[in-house]
Amino acid sequence: MPRAKFQTMTEQMFYTLLCLKSECCGMDILDRVPEMTGGAVNVGSGTLYTLLEQFCAVGWIRETRVEGRRRSYILTEAGREALAREYRRIQAQAEDYRRIFGEEDQP
Amino acid sequence: MKDKKRDFLPYSLYDYDAYTRHFTKMARRGWLVEGTAPFTWVYRRVEPKERAFAVSYFARASAFDPEPGEEQREFIDFCQRTGWRLAATNAQMQVFYNERPDPIPIETDPALEVETIHRAAKRMYLPLFWLILGIGVLEIMANRHLNPIAFPLTFLADGSGFFSLAANLLVLLYAAVELAAYFLWLCRARRAARETGTLIPSAGHRHFNALMLILTLALLICSLYSSFLYGGRLYGLVVALMLVLMAAAIFISWKVRKLMMRRHASRTATMLATFGTAIVLSVVMVMGTLTVALGYFSDDLLREDPENLPLTFTDLYEGTDYQESIRRDGSPILTCLSVTQFKVPGDSLEYTLYEVKLPFLVDPLRNLVLRDLEEDGTVDGEHYLEADSAPWSADRAFQRDWQGEPLNDWLLLYGGRIVFISVHSDPTPELMTTVAIKLGGKGE
């Protein structure tokens, strides 16, 4: 997948990267994302498998350990920057909302 | 009570909706998909209940792997974590089922899912259909003699060739539609995923696929029937044998693949053994066909009883120690008898008798021949000039001409009979009368 596709992250990409702040394996991510979001976001197993492959390919995460078929990953500096960029984008959107509707009209 | 069941699904590889719906329905009836056999899916009996099914694609999987590789196992482990259990695989296609209520789908990102399907399609499905398309075009080019415009009589009288050509065209159409439909779906699915974040249904063309398959089989059966009916029983048997050998080649190759996989041979070794078997068997079949086609056995196989011939060497010339070659062919529209009888050195007789079998097609077919003669003076690629038909008692007579030199080759029209005849020397009145009686049916 071309890098341009990651310019705007989906929720699933965002939370997958967030989980990898500390080292964990794919199966842990499947459990952690719904826990982290109160069940609002779920990552399908096939989708997660593809995401991990693609994040590795663009250097946003790296493999740290292989135990049998369990591979562990951790966020790289490039991944951290991508995540921060996405955070700033979401934050800018939230600020735009506040500017238009004001603090009192929070949903 | 049966514990196994098989069915044939005329679905395209990417038609995951159709597969999912079918496997769900089968599981509800107590049949869980567990694998594939040549052309079919295999099911085992289970307790009938509601199970969710998902068809996923793993591009690095192969139909030649003895068992899932490490990466594929990791993918299967991921799926198991969310309750999805692997039911069956067919190369890159992975069929999972889940007994939990409202399970999390395996694919939750439509854009990634479309690309995953496309990656898998590029591995085998697309190359296979490009190959079918290429072979189809080559076969049609190789059978250029079956050209209804340039050689209408040859085309209409070659029943088995006509049906084989029609079957080839259908296979070509099937491959073209399959590829066009896939790329159309891919474009629409990519756009929908990008613009609306949804995955559009896989909307295959399963009814078209089923229709193509039925028509192709029907045409092959017609081709076989035509070979038996018009080409003679032994020729039909040769064609039937070829079809049986083709089926056997597919079955034996599949068995070799299964054997190699059971022995845990590598992907490469299994591929080599499977394709090697298919190629060797195909070469044996092609050699067999060529042997027959080149006529090594054709005289024995296709020998006719000369007493059944309407006109023989002895009707026109002295002596019985002549050599001969006889061929019959035909279709429900037109039959064809080609006879060559000759002495070396000495007289010779060569004729081809076409007989129109359907009365209402007599005039259109005669007109077809006459139209060609009037347009450019040729029939089936040979040049003819109109001649006096009275001595032959024919409706019309034409003499073949080679660079202005008249030859002793004649085209004679007698009602529903079209006769091409070549004689050794200038035809005598007696010879022409005999031909009119024997081939033109004038004495009947």
Characterise this structure.
The complex is a heterodimer of chains A (107) and B (444). Chain A has 107 residues and is an alpha+beta fold. Chain A has helices at residues 11-19, 26-36, 45-58, 77-101; strands spanning 24-25, 61-67, 70-75. Chain A has one domain: Arc Repressor Mutant, subunit A (Orthogonal Bundle). Chain A has a 3-stranded antiparallel β-sheet. In chain A, a hairpin with a 2-residue loop joins strand 2 (61-67) and strand 3. An 8-stranded antiparallel β-sheet of chain B has the order 7-8-9-14-13-12-11-10. In chain B, strands 1-3-2 form a 3-stranded antiparallel β-sheet. A 3-stranded antiparallel β-sheet of chain B has the order 4-6-5. Chain B has 3 domains: 4-98, no CATH class; 110-299; 305-438. Chain B contains 12 helices and 14 strands. The model of chain B has no long low-confidence stretch (mean pLDDT 85). Chain A binds chain B through residues 1, 5, 10, 12, 26-27, 30-31, 42-51, 69-71, and chain B through 56, 70, 73-75, 77-79, 81-82, 84, 104-109, 111-113, 115-116.
Salient structural properties:
heterodimer; A: 107 residues; alpha+beta; Arc Repressor Mutant, subunit A; 14% strand; B: 444 residues; 3-stranded antiparallel beta sheet; 12 helices; 49% helix; elongated
- Given as residue ranges, the uncertain stretches of chain A (5+ residues, pLDDT < 50) are none
The interface involving the most residues is between:
A-B, 21 and 22 residues
Q: What characterizes the major β-sheet of chain B?
A: 8 strands, antiparallel
**Helicity of chain A, as a percent range:** 55-70%
Task: Summarize the model shown.
The complex is a heterodimer of chains A (107) and B (444). By secondary structure, chain A is an alpha+beta fold. Chain A has helices spanning 11-19, 26-36, 45-58, 77-101; strands spanning 24-25, 61-67, 70-75.
Write the layout of secondary structure elements.
The complex is a heterodimer of chains A (107) and B (444).
Chain A: H1 11-19, E1 24-25, H2 26-36, H3 45-58, E2 61-67, E3 70-75, H4 77-101
Antiparallel strand pairs in A: 1-3, 2-3
Chain B: E1 4-7, H1 16-28, E2 31-37, E3 40-45, E4 52-57, H2 70-81, E5 84-90, E6 93-98, H3 110-142, H4 152-157, H5 159-196, H6 206-231, H7 233-262, H8 267-293, H9 298-302, H10 313-316, E7 323-330, E8 334-342, E9 348-356, H11 362-376, E10 378-379, E11 382-387, E12 396-402, E13 405-414, E14 417-423, H12 429-438
Antiparallel strand pairs in B: 1-3, 2-3, 4-6, 5-6, 7-8, 8-9, 9-14, 10-11, 11-12, 12-13, 13-14
Helix pairs in contact in B: 3-5, 5-6, 6-7, 7-8
